# Entry
Amino acid sequence: MATLSNKRILVGVTGGIAAYKAADLIRRLRERGAEVRVVMTQAASRFITPLTLQAISGHPVHSEFLDTGAETAMGHIELARWADLVLVAPAGADFLARLAQGRADDLLATLCLATKSPVAVAPAMNQQMWANASTQNNLISLKKRGVTFWGPDSGSQACGETGPGRMLEPAELAEHAAALFQTGSLDGLQIMVTAGPTWEPIDPVRGLSNRSSGKMGYAVAQAAMEAGAQVILVSGPTTLVDPDRIQTLRVATAQQMHDTVHTHIHPIDIFIGVAAVADYRPIQTAARKIKKSDASLSLELVPNPDILASVAALDPAPYTVGFAAETNDLEAHARKKLEAKKLDLIAANPVGDRHSGFESDLNQLTLIDQHSLTPLPLQTKSRLARELISEIAQRYHEKNTTQNTRPAHRQ
Ligand SMILES: Cc1cc2nc3c(=O)[nH]c(=O)nc-3n(C[C@H](O)[C@H](O)[C@H](O)COP(=O)(O)O)c2cc1C
# Structure
């Protein structure tokens, strides 16, 4: 069964006989792992009580457009942003007409206008209402604007007539929703990603760091979450905000990153080290700001712990993926790192080029493991991260099938 892990679905319910089926739909979406919030039209609450849908969704139901209390708790724009999918089921003829006109005269219609996420509707109405030219014109116009139609089905209707206009069964709608996201390649797995630079203090105001922005690591964590995993992101200092639905642990130095990784490493299934960890740190940190003088100043540096190698050396070790940022001889250096650190996979990326790597929104990778070399072309970091996660998921599942066992710490 395709899952909806980590997905947020806003179910809109409009006034019609099929409104009672919304309760079963919400239950089935939640069974697949989705978080569900419900918005009802005024008419819908005459057919099924908000209390029922509140109990089944586990959250208060929203319906009042101009309720200032509800607006403060979770306003209409916030709800529109929150949703990964808006699914209106049942969608009555009146609602389709309002949606086609782009009206914002109630909460549900406004949300459909305000969301950037896909809007899907499951029409439900008398077969003559469905066949009516007005409804069919609305259907054409909404489809042109990207609204997805699931159903209607054909069959016997509550009004005693037979024909197209029945709402699709809740189980079918849940299946459509899951197919829309195609999540699940990492369903049920626990993933840790490190990201960003580290900061090695010289004195209270100065330190050694590098140009890593954290964008690639955050994109990888996001893509893993979208694929259904529970994700821990261990981040060095970045200006990026903590991503939603991901447990973010902030650190500064390489030693802190090492310790935080090892505190949370069990029961991680896949470890992806994207952070640009400083190889060295000053042997000591001055307690006070070092004063300027004419004399030259030497800093003695000592090596930091190798986080990636220490994770790959664990027994049992998670599937371990490293990143190799290189300015030259990319493949040779990456292969050496793969073997020296006993990694499962390494993602090599060229840095020092203004089109990709540190600080850029674009990147390219070459994936190298014992058996293969897979180039992933220059593209946005978020698209690249999704491709990378799909490659990792495939290799992780292959490895576990070959070994015919789950890692010992997951048994
Ligand atoms: C008993 C009853 C059943 C109804 N069933 C439907 C229906 O299945 N589909 C539909 O499009 N309208 C149906 N309607 C009409 C809607 O309830 C009406 O258009 C209402 O204004 C919809 O409001 P809303 O779009 O704000 O939910 C029904 C009305 C009544 C009284």
